[in-house]
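Please decode residue identities from the backbone states below.
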């Protein structure tokens, strides 16, 4: 009899829980396609290490992007390799802002006109055609920044294979790629 009451209590609690959820309007909903895609992308790119400049990028003769972080902050570089190519994209900071941005060319001049810091100071956008060996931007993020998201297109296509991340010369599996804004803190468990 005690055992039967125990099972009845569990069944009643489960029914009450469902009633409370549906009565409060909190019904289970299947995640939409965009949420599922974002989750899959996050899981695919989760072991990327953005620390240090990728050596493979400088040796490349084909068009590429390189993204990394070092003691000077974050960097995004482009190389056209041979020919002229169309580079387009967005760098977005989640949970914080972009504290400082400058051109990689000499670091003492403002970014070229095609690198634009948005008014919200959470995004840098770019859209340009180039045959230059190197172009790029350097930026620092606020201490409260959580993620840096790179949405990159080369000649109108998202091509993860042309993006090199960190000194380990890693390639994301999918784009956009989201990286920890403070990777050293993540490694240290902070």
């Amino acid at each position: 009899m005690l055992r039967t009451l125990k099972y009845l209590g569990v069944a009643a609690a489960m029914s009450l829980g469902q009633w409370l959820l549906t009565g409060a309007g909190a019904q289970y909903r299947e995640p939409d396609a965009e949420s599922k895609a974002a989750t899959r992308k996050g899981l695919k790119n989760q072991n990327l290490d953005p620390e240090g400049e990728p050596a493979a990028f400088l040796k490349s003769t084909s068009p590429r992007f390189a993204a990394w972080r070092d003691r000077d902050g974050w960097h995004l570089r482009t190389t056209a390799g041979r020919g002229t190519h169309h580079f387009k994209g967005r760098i977005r900071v989640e949970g914080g802002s972009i504290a400082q941005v400058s051109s990689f060319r000499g670091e003492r001049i403002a970014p070229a006109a095609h690198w634009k810091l948005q008014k919200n100071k959470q995004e840098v956008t770019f859209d340009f055609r180039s045959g230059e060996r190197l172009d790029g931007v350097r930026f620092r993020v606020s201490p409260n920044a959580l993620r840096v998201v790179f949405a990159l297109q080369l000649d109108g296509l998202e091509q993860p294979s042309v993006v090199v991340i960190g000194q380990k010369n890693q390639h994301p599996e999918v784009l956009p790629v989201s990286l920890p804004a403070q990777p050293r803190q993540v490694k240290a468990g902070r």
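Observation: Helices lie at 2-23, 33-44, 55-59, 183-187.
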